[in-house]
Amino acid sequence: MRYTIATARSAKAIAVFAIAAMIMVLVVACQETPLPPTQSESEAAPQGMAAMANEGNPGVFDDRVLFGQSAAFSGPAQALGNEMRLGIQAAFQEQNQAGGVHGRMLELSTLDDQYEPHLAYSNTLNLINQERVFALIGEVGTPTSRSASPLANAQGVPFIAPFTGAGFLRQAELENVVNLRASYHQEAEEMVARLTEDLGITRVAVMYQNDSYGQSGLDGVTDALGKRNLEPVASWYYQRNSDAVKAAVFNIVEANPEAVIMIGAYAPVAKAITVAREDIDPIFMAVSFVGSNALAQELGPDGSGVYVTQVVPLPDDSGVPVVAAYRAALQAFDANAVPGFVSLEGYLAGRLAIVGLEQCGRDVSRDCFLNALRNSGTIDLEGMTLQYGPGDNQGSDAVFVTVIGDDGNYHLVNNLRGAR
């Protein structure tokens, strides 16, 4: 199987950029409620570090390279950000203990955006212009990436392995973006294919988060059903960073679907499943962004039979060399950490960044780094193969269907028939 897994010259220039930036954030986050400014996490670069960097090569020092990450480290989606950061940290520590990359240690500066676009925007401005990171890595979420990625693109800052399958990040003209995972459209296609081909199901409903993430997933499901001359029998939404799902569940239950595809995060998805099961018993399926470990924990014994599509291998499959390496690196970084799909994706993101740095040698630059990844053709991460090329900034096309078993663990499913 193919796992196609400055400084400003004048005050006027700064003012123009600031005005343009403000217009952009109002467009992407016009529905957001302002929250207090976020603070840097403990891994953030020491104050004054930016002044020590090569002015023409932000984030690159004689002895280290500084990456930045804005993600949810608090709030209802914090498990996603914390796990993604954990995996990146494990990969970086593993490399640092081996001498770093061409004599440079890898550092990660993190800022909490609480899964809110306006905080992701301000964090990204901070990371690029104040901390002057070399690259951004592991952004968590579609609405936050939609807010942050234009800032990175405008300044040519690498935007590496965001934890989202949103289509807008896969546009060929985004030369600074390097995706690792399959898209939400690909996950939706696999879900609908299995439901219709394996079980003959035609009545599919969708519950989705009311933002660009949910819309992307809903579009994917609608397109996949449309290829089969079908359409959702019901679709309803809930608000991001809430578990107010009763209205959505009520409307979906009324349609009496055979299957419900859920485009959301772990807490609201778990609550929706629990509430819906009081009246109907359809097949429930969720996309990978849900946060598989957190979902299983939220559902407890009631999780048995819930399906989740994945875009990385099973985190306990040590038969895949990179998974074995991940488990060893995770154990070395935090002996109490539990392996999971999200931290595995974070580890793979860290490994991907290391490949780019290694190929550039000692004279690393953002342009060299991006060219090394985007024009590499094939990158082998110990058994997980990523393929890039002209107009293709997504390394992996792989989607796997998993189900929560009676043991509370995830198991691969090749055919839904007989899997329940």
Model description:
The chain is an alpha/beta fold and 420 residues long. It folds into 2 domains: 11-180 and 319-387, Response regulator (Rossmann fold); 184-310 and 400-413, 3-Layer(aba) Sandwich (Rossmann fold). The protein has 12 helices and 14 strands. The chain has helices spanning 11-28, 78-97, 117-130, 142-154, 184-199, 212-226, 246-255, 266-276, 292-299, 321-333, 341-360, 366-374, and strands at 64-71, 105-112, 135-137, 159-160, 177-178, 204-209, 234-238, 259-263, 283-286, 307-310, 378-381, 384-387, 400-404, 410-413. It has a 7-stranded mixed beta sheet with strand order 7-6-8-9-10-13-14, with helices on both faces. Strands 2-1-3-4-5 form a 5-stranded parallel beta sheet, with helices on both faces. Strands 11-12 form a two-stranded antiparallel ribbon. Strand 1 (64-71), helix 2 and strand 2 form a beta-alpha-beta unit. Helix 2 crosses helix 10, helix 3 packs parallel to helix 4 and helix 5 (184-199) runs parallel beside helix 6 (212-226). It starts with 10 loop residues before the first helix and ends in a 7-residue tail after the last strand.
